[in-house]
Each structure stands twice: as structure tokens, then as C-alpha cells.
Amino acid sequence: MKNPIRKCLAAASLLLAMGAQAEEKPNIVLMVQDNLGWGEVGCYGGGILRGAETPRIDGLASEGMKLLNFNVEAQCVPSRSALMTGRHPIRSGTHSVVWGMLYGMTQWEETMAETLSEQGYTTAMYGKWHLGDTPGRFPTDQGFDEWYGIPNTTDEATYTEGFEYDPEVASPSVVMESKRGETPKTVMTYTREVRGEMDNVLTDKTIEFMERNANKDKPFFAYVPYTLPHVPGMPSEEFEGKTGNGRWADMLSNMDYNVGRVLDSIDDLGIRDNTIVIWLSENGPEEIWPHAGTAGPWRGTYFTPYEGGLRTPCLIRWPGKIEAGSVSNEIVHITDFYPTLAKIAGGDVPQDRIIDGVDQIAHFSGESADSAREGFPIYNGARFYGYKWRNWKVLTLTNETMGDNIMTPGMPRLYHIPTDPKEQYDLVKFGGRDGGERAYWVLPVIFKKIVAHKASLAAEPPIKMGTPDPYVPASN
């Protein structure tokens, strides 16, 4: 159930938006890769070193801002929830990837798509949702005018070929489509063969949507959560064997090609100057061989609290507003895109709940050299792992891999990231003049922030995972 007062205000905003000129509100194209590590593409030190050049993604970096310290959540579901709501997933009951139970965002949550829709945007999503697969929790229930893609995740494409697979107890994954107000319908079974061509199809759909909406009197928002390189990371038939460096490199080349196709379409439609393009990864690299990726100089993969699990590539282009070739090493979090895009669109985030994201437009535009945030809490699932602040990180829980045991150190671990990018030297443990004793002052500073974060969870109790709709907070 949505806030009725907010809906009345939204209706008034929509009337104002409809009377404005389309060029006053930029189009937004948000492309998201699934489990692409920091060190995979050329502009982040990968590319040819990973077996395939990535000229189109690298070119995008030269045309806008490259974020070196963009941070996400440790798992797929929470990252996507954080992106859509601007809230830490621990608040929304979307903190973990789960099976066999009701999951996803309650209808009470306000999404980026809903806010942009209220500001007069035509909205569409093409790709992986992973924020609910039951009536009321599909993309077209949460602010999107149309959707084509998969409700859950890509490893489900392997189910039908699984050892002793039984369709009577494990329904095959499907590709779905829907429009706002309609019940999503199944298009086809999501098999491994379909998986290989999926991102090409998502690109086709995105281009067709932009062609339909580029010259209308209202702006558009295209959310394109691609399925690559999530396991099984495989290229389309057209790219199989293309690089000569194996399937992973073929897939990387395929990925770059599709990003280029979207960028070319924007140019062909003559809307480059009035279109914000954001390209990012929502998780750290895969660790499952032979689909494993790399986080470049950082330690860890997804499902870990290290920089490799939190820090991913992110590029932003907005001609005339964001300086071409600019680079930032300031901390930006995935929750920040919701309030930032809402502000650009002339809207605002909900005022009746805690929003963790912050408006970063001053930093992106170069008006401020500093990010609007200094840090954020670290979670893996429902477990609180620590806090990243400026150049420092405190961890109270650790695990080395997705399947590793979760360890509780006797004392919190403290790392200084610029001098220790692999997070190998715990400064609480390694004392001495040039070690821990020069860093001890950081512990009380960060723990004050941890206490404040946990107090916010007491002030606004989190939604429990599996909470059905309709949901209304007790305080309301």
C-alpha cells in the first residue's frame, strides 16, 4: 500500500511535469551488469588482459565520469533493492538471496521507477529483476510501464539440464513480459540456449523502446539489468570463439558490443546531449570456475566484505553536465542513484521513511570535489559485517569466499585501504609506531557510526524478509 498523501502530491507533480518541455528533463538509460568485477574491462585495468578489448565501455569512460570507489551490496537481491529504493536492504527485508519462500520488495516500498513515473517519465525494464516473483512484486507492479526479462536469476537457466532434474518438483525458469496493470505472462522457458542470446535480445528491446519514445513530449527511463556475466557466463552464438581466448573473453566482447549498440542508438536518435547514461556492476566478480572473474587490485568476490565484493565499476555520462574524462575516487554507494536521479527529474524521495542514499549531483557535476557521503555499513545477508569510512574499514565478521565459514575475530579488524588494497594487514593486530598504534584513533570514530546506524534500525524497525502485502509500518 502506497502513501496516499504522497500519491496526491505525485499527481500534482505529474501535471506540472506534463506541461514542461521534454528537454528540461533528461532521458535516463541505466545499464547494469551482473557480477562484473572491478578489474574486468579495459578502463579499469582489464580488457585485453582478460582476453578481449572493451572499446565501447572504455569510450564511455572517456566521455563522462569514471568512479573508482563505487560500492554495492555483497549479493544480487540486496544490491538491486538498494538501487531501486535508496535504502539499505536490511531495512526492506531484501538483504539476502533466498529460495522457497516469499521474497522481494513489499508494495509499500517506493522505487526509482515510481518516482520517475510521477515526474512524467515513460519507464521500461529489460532484464533480470530478482526482487520478487509473485503477483504484486513484478517490475510492472513497482513503477515500470513495461518489462521483458527474467524474474529471478540466471543460474536457473541450468536447471533443465541438471543431474536427475525433475520438472514435477522444480519448475523450469521462464522468460516473462508484462505491461503496467497486466498479469505477467510467460514467453518461453529460460534454458541454457536461451541464456546465451538473452543480452542480445534485451539490447534489441531497449533500442526499440528508445526509438518509440525518443521524440515524444515526455522523457524516458530505460533500466537495463543485463544477465552477463553471471554464471553460466556464456556468449551468444555470434561471439562464440570470436576472441580466440576462451569463452569468458568471448562473453566480455559480447557484453561490450551490446553496450555499444545502446550508445549508437542514442546517437542515431539525436538524443545524446539530453540523455544520462549510467553503466555499472551490481556485485563483485564471480568466484565459480570457469566463470570466475577478477576484482583487479582488490581482495575478494561477491558474498565477502572485502573491497572486491563491494567496489565495482561505474561510469556516468551526461554531456554538458558531467565533465568528459573526469575520475573520482570518492566513496559513492549504490543507494545514492535513487535520490540523485529523483532530484535531476524534479522529484523527491519519500519523507516517511529512512532513505540512506544521498544526492550526488554536486559531486558528479564537479561543483564539489567531495562526495556527499564518507562511508556506509557493510552487510552480507542479514549479518552486519562492519563499516567502511573514508580510507578505513572495520570488520567484525569475515569470510574469504561465498561458501567459506563466517569468522568472528576476537578483536575488530582494521584496514587502511590505500596502503593495503588486499586487506592483508589488520592494524589492530600489527602494532608498532608504523602500524596499529597510529591507527587506533579510527576505532572510536567508526564505532560511533556503527552505533548510530544500529540505533536507526531500532527507531525504524526493518521489514522482515517474507512479509506479505499489504504492509504498513506500525509507526504509520
From TrEMBL:
Residues 1-22 form the signal peptide. Transmembrane segments: none annotated. This is Arylsulfatase. Belongs to the sulfatase family. Residues 26-346 form the Sulfatase N-terminal domain. Its cofactor is Ca(2+). Pfam families: Sulfatase. One of its GO terms (molecular function) is arylsulfatase activity. InterPro entries: Alkaline_phosphatase_core_sf (IPR017850), Sulfatase (IPR050738), Sulfatase_N (IPR000917). It comes from the Bacteria. Keywords: Calcium, Hydrolase, Metal-binding, Signal.
